């Protein structure tokens, strides 16, 4: 890496993605601080990471890095060389985090966002026009999924882009570099498939289980689009659709009413035990498609 050597990593947001990104960093041997204002989120994430870090690190011939958890972002940024933001997909919340990063983070730190849909240039603006801001879009579960979309905005320097690509490799990931358009490559394609699947279920053409079986067995997808939506979190999916619709103004990305109804009822997918499927306490699907 040229400028941002990964000596100390800070991951902001300890939910579904933040804990997986922190686990990937710890398993790569990097000392990592995970920041979230919710103590219960930090407790769950600590157990999740502790259960997996040693075996993942030894599979890569590494010694696991040290994990620290914290509730206060500003106090955690001292000497951080890499910051990866993974807070909820709401512009105002992310802008606030990047304002803090622009003000408090080390002047040379790489500032990455795991946003699925939002503008990296806007986040760079919030950080005071920094050329150190880049998108690093990981996939769920982040410690296992190989792809990272590195999103280079017009504001992102060549050094920052190169360092983000190099960081992906340190984390054992395969990067692709894409431009800063709403939804990049993967969210644009995935959201459309998910929307059509939801409309098919809502109109009564097929059940959720049969839609997922169709895409597994007919198109060789490892997971159907509705199982995937449940894994992502239906609230997160709804935010992604709203954000891409707002940025692109294209009706096909508008959230289907079935999705809005499920989120309104508190059915957020696997994490709440109920979405397109129902789940047991261990997250196993109770009434889903027959696999294989
Ligand atoms: P989540 O809702 O599971 O976790 C978000 C966490 O951020 C919460 O624990 C919340 O307490 C924390 N948070 C909120 N404000 C904060 C702040 N100011 N400082 C520190 N922490 C704060 O959300 P999830 O699903 O992990 O998504 C996070 C980001 O990752 C979003 O931008 C989303 O679009 C993106 N993403 C999500 C994927 C998924 O499958 N869920 C896949 C790829 C990207």
Short description:
The protein has eleven helices and eight strands.
Which descriptors would you attach to this protein?
eight-stranded mixed sheet, alpha/beta, 292 residues, binds 1,4-dihydronicotinamide adenine dinucleotide
Structure description:
By secondary structure, this protein is α/β, with parallel strands linked by helices. It is 45% helix and 13% strand. The protein has 11 helices and 8 strands. Strands 3-2-1-4-5-6-7-8 form an 8-stranded mixed β-sheet, sandwiched between helices. Helix 1 runs parallel beside helix 2, helix 4 (91-104) crosses helix 5 and helix 7 packs across helix 9 (225-232). The N and C termini lie far apart (43 Å). The model has no long low-confidence stretch (mean pLDDT 95).
Radius of gyration (CA) equals: 19 Å
List SSEs in N-to-C order. EHEHEHEHEHEEHEHHHHH
Class from secondary-structure proportions: alpha/beta
Q: Name the helicity range.
A: 40-55%
Question: What low-confidence regions span 5 or more consecutive residues with pLDDT below 50?
Answer: none
The distinct bound ligands, ions and cofactors come out as: 1,4-dihydronicotinamide adenine dinucleotide
Total DSSP helices: 11
Based on DSSP secondary structure assignment, what is the total number of beta strands? Answer: 8
Distance between the termini: 43 Å
What share of residues are in beta strands?
5-15%
Shape annotation? globular
